[in-house]
Structures are given as C-alpha cells and as structure tokens.
Design brief:
mainly beta, 8-stranded antiparallel sheet, 4-stranded antiparallel sheet, 39% strand, disordered N terminus
Length: 239
C-alpha cells in the first residue's frame, strides 16, 4: 500500500532540496545567463528577438546579479561589487534598468568615469575628440516588430580602435545634441547602437531612460547571439 506523506515529511523533503536549487541559481547567476532582446535599441548589432549569451562575472558581482537584487540595492554606489572592475569602452553590457530595477536592459559602454562626453549633431565627442564615422550605406531599421523605416548605417570607432556599427534615421534628432559633462565616479555613459531609438544615458531616469548608469546595476557582458529565430544566420554571432 502506498503511504501518503504527511505535511511534515513534505516540508522536510522540500527543505532537503533547497541547497541543490540554491546551488543551481548561484551557478547560473555567477557564471552565465541568457536574455532575449526585446527592442530595436541595439540595431544593427542586436535585433528584436535575438537570444544573447551573457558572461555574468565579467565585471565582478553585485547584489544586482541576484534573483531579488532589485530589493538589495546598496545605499552607497561605491564598493558595491565583489572583485569588481570597469568595462571597456565598446563593451555591450546588460544591467538592471535604473528606472525599473525589475527590468534588464542592454546598451554599449561609451564613456567611463572621468571621461568628458558631448554630442553635436549626433556625433559623440569623447575627451575632446570626435569619434570617427564611416558611412556604410543605406539600410532599414525595425523600429517596432515588423515595422520598418529607412536608416543610414555608420561604423563608429572608439579609442583603442574598437569598431561597431550604428544606425541613424535622422541627422539632427532630439537626442543628437548634449552639452559637455564629465562622467562621475562609479557611473558609465551608455548608448544604444540605434542612436535615434534608444532611451539611454542621454535620457534621464525621470523620463524613463538610463541616465548615467551606476556600476552596481551591471549584470554582465553580452558576448554572443546564441539563437535568432528571425535570422538563423545570426546564430553564434560573436559580439
């Protein structure tokens, strides 16, 4: 005859499994994770629906990496990461969105602490130097899923000869001019590669953007497109 377990036995069995479950969550959080790109803000590098692989400990670990990290943000933004170090300019990073810590966003690092940043007619001026652009020709931007509009593609070069492509749909949009400022300590200036369709560091947190991104918010570095249902040829694309 099969015995029906008591509530006490069930509770004991569940508790005995907790270390295994917590171990899995810790390994997943500490080593790697996968995310689905929800928007067009990183086109042409990433497209809507791309599944990306993220190396979590790229910049050390913080409570932002924990499943309930939105409730564990430190009061001070200094010394908020274990084994922490800064990203490189040009890294594609995932992070808890400052405007909504329940959400994970993805952008590219442009400015590091101490950098002076400005934008004039869409061109980034980093520490007094205009980032070079190379016109790569006309293309299309998927502004929303299955909604397309004309765009121009450029290759932008960061210090250290770091190249990445960007999209522009306007030559003098509302986000194309930013007065010079210095990135403060423990913060980053990040931008979407789709420069006219990205609520990034040019947009304040109060207006739903990233603002200057606290280093605490970082969850890892995006390294590759693991899978793309909409474009199989992008699968295993290294970023």
């Amino acid at each position: 005859m099969t015995r029906i377990p008591t509530l006490r036995q069930l509770a004991r069995d569940i508790l005995s499994c907790l270390p295994v479950l917590l171990g899995f969550l810790t390994i997943h959080s500490a080593l790697a994770a996968a995310y689905i790109v929800p928007s067009a803000s990183m086109e042409p590098t990433l497209r809507i629906g791309d599944q990306i692989g993220v190396i979590v400990p790229s910049y050390g670990l913080s409570t932002a990496n924990l499943p309930f990290g939105d409730a564990l943000k430190p009061s001070s933004e200094t010394d908020s990461r274990l084994f922490g170090h800064l990203p490189h300019r040009g890294d594609v990073v995932v992070f808890r969105a400052p405007a909504n810590l329940h959400q994970t966003w993805i952008k590219r690092v442009i400015g590091l602490p101490g950098d002076t940043v400005a934008l004039v007619h869409g061109r980034v001026i980093l520490n007094g130097t205009v980032l070079p652009w190379k016109d790569m020709g006309s293309t299309r931007e998927e502004s929303r899923k299955n909604v397309w509009r004309a765009a121009e593609r450029y290759e932008e070069t960061l210090p250290g000869n770091i190249h990445h492509d960007i999209l522009k749909t306007s030559q003098d949009g509302e986000l194309d001019n930013v007065a010079p400022f210095t990135v403060p300590a423990s913060h980053l200036f990040v931008m979407g590669d789709n420069r006219d369709n990205s609520a990034d560091s040019r947009v304040s947190v109060a207006d739903g953007g990233v603002g200057l991104l606290p280093v605490w918010n970082l969850q890892g570095q995006a390294r590759a497109v693991l899978w793309s249902w909409r474009d199989i040829g992008r699968t295993a694309l290294v970023l």
